[in-house]
Amino acid sequence: MQTAREDTLDKPKLLLKAEEVARRLSVGRATAYEMMAGGILPTVRIGRSVRVPARALEEWVEANAKLE
Questions:
Q1: 10 to each of 6, 18, 42, how far by Cα in Å?
Q2: Structural domain containing residue 46
Q3: How many domains, the chain?
Q4: C-alpha pair distances (Å), 49 with each of 16, 56, 63
């Protein structure tokens, strides 16, 4: 029987911290925080924590990619 912690390790994260957003976008952590605070990236607030939904981040990248 798997514990709840082990069960979540098999699934991709739904909500990302600023550090994870920065890593995925290949930008600095401060830039990720600025994008989140400035409303550039969609966020979810849980108590005092602010997270970016992983799917919304992917959609944001697709919408903002300039394909030539």
A1: 7, 21, 25
A2: 13-64
A3: 1
A4: 11, 17, 26
**Would 44 be classed as within a structural domain?**
yes
CB atoms within 10 A of CB 29: 14
36 in any annotated domain: yes
Environment class of 33 (CB within 10 Å of its CB; exposed 0-12, middle 13-18, buried 19+): middle
Q: How far apart are CA 18 and CA 35, in angstroms?
A: 9
**Which CATH number fits the domain that encloses residue 44?**
1.10.10
Reading the chain (68 residues) residue by residue, the pLDDT tens digits are 566 666 666 788 999 999 999 999 999 999 999 999 999 999 999 999 999 999 999 999 999 998 76
Instruction: Please tell me the pTM assigned to this model.
Output: 0.80
Residue 3 resides in a domain: no
- Helices then strands, each counted (H, E), the chain: 4, 3
